[in-house]
Amino acid sequence: xxxxxxALLFSSPEPIDVREIAKILRARVEDVEKAVNELIKxxxxxxxxLEIVKLGNKVLMRVKPKYQHLVSGERDLDKSTLRTLAIxxxxxPIELSKLAKMRGNRCYEHVKKLEELGxxxxxxxxxxxxxxxxxxxxxxxxxxxxxxxxxxxxxxKRLESLNL
Length: 164
What we know:
This protein is α+β, with helices and mostly antiparallel strands. It contains 8 helices and 6 strands. It folds into 2 domains: 2-68, Arc Repressor Mutant, subunit A, CATH 1.10.10; 79-161, Orthogonal Bundle (Arc Repressor Mutant, subunit A).
């Protein structure tokens, strides 16, 4: 089953839900999750530019962040959603209502996708939500940080190096 799961991940341009993989393979979700975890360990144990990442219930095969610059046009997130994520990361914790003022109504769609991928989490605060990044965000971008302040610091330094 590992090879079948690997083939599906390789051919999918988007993260794919474990339940969807199970449905396609006519297998139990538990068996697919086991195969995914084994694949993750396999890829971590070999010298390769590829990795398999779990994002909530979804799984993605991708080029490791340190090799991403070599692959043109290869992106899991469209530019607009990526910009929304950057604003969340740089200003976290940020209220969804404030984000909407900065990014417009499409940000609700972006936040939904980012939450589905497990890159962002939200907590209710009155009539709005407060958004922050997750451990999956740190892993997704290959950051070696453990706190919100370190994430902000890394982003600030990267922006400075780009003269933005």
